[in-house]
Amino acid sequence: MTITRRSLLFTSAVGLAAIMAAGSALADAPPLKKKDTYKVGFAQTESNNPWRLAQTASMQEEAKKRGWQLVYTDAASSAAKQVADVNSMIAQGVDLIFLAPREEKPLIPAIKAAKNAGIPVILLDRNVDASLAKAGEDYVTFIGSNFIEEGQRVADWLVKNANGKTTIIELEGTTGSSPANDRKKGFDEVIAKNPGFKVVASQTGDFARDKGRQVAETLLQAHPDANVIYAHNDEMAIGAISAIEAAGKVPGKDILVLSIDGGKEAVQAVVDGKIAAVVECNPRFGPKAFDTAVAYANGEKIPDKLINPDQFYDASNAKELLSTAY
Ligand code: GYE
């Protein structure tokens, strides 16, 4: 066939129609075919704390149990690397991607790239900016905790049990991550409604133990009157305990330490009186993540969010529940 200008025009019009049709079909997240076994990706954010290790172990165990192939990547605390990790999973033709987006915004292009490649994404433990990507459209669903509520529960506990301790230092998680944004929001809102309580300093410790220790040390020097430290995760709380002790003060007596995650070391610190209270954030995602993928393949309607129930630890129950902590 000779290609005339006219036939070229015609082709491009047909092409355009096809693209438009595909575009409207793509309003929903890509489907997952029913199969006996799958090759799925798990794009982890980092592996520098027990929470992440427990989550990875739970995903790997579940894949093994079901005989699914798991393509695992560790972004080593870099959102840019995590974007590259997702792109490489797309290139490898995985059936589905489980993604723990390190921060709310930088992973959006990766989520859209997966969608364009026809690969469904399930967000695990961290969410993305809701104005930039939507459940049921860009990704299937978010599975994780209600971080706003976690922050509220810590603040509610403090308001009830403060015993005069009202001057608060806040150690925030990774800047731009959904748990840091929401744990701050939930906590600060309750504190703002309770006269007498005050957050005198709030700074990121990047969810990391040593960064938490360093930041706590600096903030305790700047605010010697502080008598509460609220850390967005256990790692920073444990770092803060070192900083408090290095300052010659007694955690649990001079300064109340409050945390989120509920790993064994932190629950043990509650038993020992060094941490006053911890809201659990359960990292054992494997069973629920894989069940959700199967339900999706079966054509079940998946809710936009699947919220994990979280335990609460303080002196009243820590000893009894210690063995159940991750
Ligand atoms: O609290 C923290 C981890 O995203 C919920 O990230 C998770 C948080 C968890 O590194 O310890």
Automatic annotation (TrEMBL):
InterPro entries: Peripla_BP_I, SBP_2_dom, TAT_signal. It comes from Phyllobacterium sophorae. Belongs to the bacterial solute-binding protein 2 family. Its main location: other. GO terms for cellular component: cell envelope. This is Sugar ABC transporter substrate-binding protein. Coiled coil: none annotated. Residues 40-301 form the Periplasmic binding protein domain. GO terms for molecular function: carbohydrate binding. It comes from the Bacteria. The lineage of its organism: Bacteria, Pseudomonadati, Pseudomonadota, Alphaproteobacteria, Hyphomicrobiales. Residues 1-27 form the signal peptide.
